[in-house]
Amino acid sequence: MVTPASIFHTCALFLKFHTLAVLARLVWGNQEMIWTLSWDALTARPSPRTVALAKPKKDFGKHQRRPLFLYSCGRESTIWERPLLVDFNFPSDRLLKLSEPKKCSAAYLRQRPRQSPEWPVSPAARSYKASPRIMELAKPKVLHPEFLLAREVPTRVTNAAALARASSRLQRLAEPRVREVTCCYESSFLESVIRPVSKLAQEAIASPRTLELARAKSLHPDYVPLRDAEWPVTKTAKHAVATPRLMELARPRKRPPMDSAQFDPDAFTVKETAKKATCSARIQDLARPIKR
């Protein structure tokens, strides 16, 4: 039976859930969500699996006493302080967590066919007689008939080889080959040339073509030599006065610090003029997807 009290109680619960849903909404500047969330999505309850996945990961580095700005953008790396030797007597919580063996799920333990890790052998398998094919496959592989074992490291020299005498042919072949040295010449007096020049070469007369090729390569007519390291400054440059435009360009650009640039509260705020802007025909043409 519907009574005024039950209707009032239902309306109160509805207003309570609606207020909680509105307060739980995330606000990104002055933007609205593209898709509106349904009432079922706002009042839905997560499953146990979702709750388990939503748990934050344990922070094992909270005892290291490192500043938070160390991991922010634009910070240079610092030298971490070495922990005390007392902390090495017992493994850390992180090592204990990693050393835990992987636990089997309860569903797997209920479905596996046996409880012991030992595989049971049936009586039929114990009394089974192997076939000739299995007996043939069970034989170890035989070595090749011409297989020779590895020799020992020190090779034994026979008495005949130790008492043998080399023939004249072997002695002649054992002599090193004498090669003529062509990169050096015999030493002589200081005024002599390194390489001997024949008389015909000394009395030869160069042709006009040879004289032309022997000339050094001349520089280009428009060649300008390098400037000196010290440039002379003119008097007009010394007494020149900079214009206001040059003074404005000479000022260094002021950039906001990384702390304020990284955490910008107005990062998601859209200007009113941008909301009311209309796209040009060119932008609309570029925004169309490519037809493939």
UniProtKB/TrEMBL annotation:
<dbReference type="InterPro" id="IPR006623">
    <property type="entry name" value="THEG"/>
</dbReference>
<feature type="signal peptide">
    <location>
        <begin position="1"/>
        <end position="29"/>
    </location>
</feature>
<keyword id="KW-0677">Repeat</keyword>
<dbReference type="InterPro" id="IPR042401">
    <property type="entry name" value="SPMAP2-like"/>
</dbReference>
<protein>
    <recommendedName>
        <fullName>Testicular haploid expressed gene protein-like</fullName>
    </recommendedName>
</protein>
<keyword id="KW-0732">Signal</keyword>
<dbReference type="Pfam" id="PF14912">
    <property type="entry name" value="THEG"/>
</dbReference>
